[in-house]
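Moderator note: this is an archived Q&A kept for reference. The question asked for a predicted structure of one protein chain; the sequence and the answer are reproduced below.
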Amino acid sequence: MDESRMFQENTSDNYLNSVAPICEDDAFQKKGHSARTLSPEEAEKLARDQALVSDFKKLKLEKEAQKNWDLFYKRNSTNFFKDRHWTTREFEDLKACREFEDQKLTILEAGCGVGNCLFPLLEEDLNIFAYACDFSPRAVEYVKKNVLYNIERCKVFQCDLTKDELLENIPADSVDVVTLIFVLSAIHPDKMHLALQNIYKVLKPGKCVLFRDYGLYDHAMLRFKSGSKLGENFYVRQDGTRSYFFTDEFLSHLFMAVGYEQVVNEYVLRETVNRKEGLRVPRIFLQSKFRKPLSDA
């Protein structure tokens, strides 16, 4: 992607309700601690769409969550998401956390997909060893087949963060930085804490989780049609994959209840432009940093 150009995004229902955005031109971005204010029309739509998916369908979606993501990658292969070359700019800690220049860092990308974040990071920083895992076995296989995959620089494995122990593949207290980017939103809210507990065990004391995900009232949330709501701020897409939209309060409580310390937790408000259709839509994300304390005492 040419990062000198304004970020453009397809604004169709399927795209907005499927893709984790690649951004980013800072001229069109601002950060803050206030959520977006809805227009009267948007507020009316959300108030009207209160019908929940049946309990039977909710259980079916939870049971088939891995299958639905595997089918997503089967349909889209490695072509759906663009490479995220913006990651090191948005998360300066990927460089700033070094205690000395050229220090070798060990990172974990929790929810690596097909490697759109992983491989740009490894290319940009030769002093990184990366662990990477994903819920989808198919996504993991795509990573392993990538010509840039090198077992001397990264280890990828399949993992359900809510039940499979990361300790089976990663030593305890060994990771300098964990990236959790557009991943937690795909997990049922009742199980999110399990993923954070799992990550906590492999993160070094004093080191951080770098988080970015969908925020409350993001345009994708407002585009869901009636009959897509699973619970508060939680929706299902047409392909069976799910997405949660975070408030800063919910996210803060979620991390701190597990034992993390909050460092930064703020909304990122962007205006995405589709020049072809002449559309401008508001994108809302949460970008945050939570630290594992130096001592659990």
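Archived answer notes: The longest helix spans residues 65-76.
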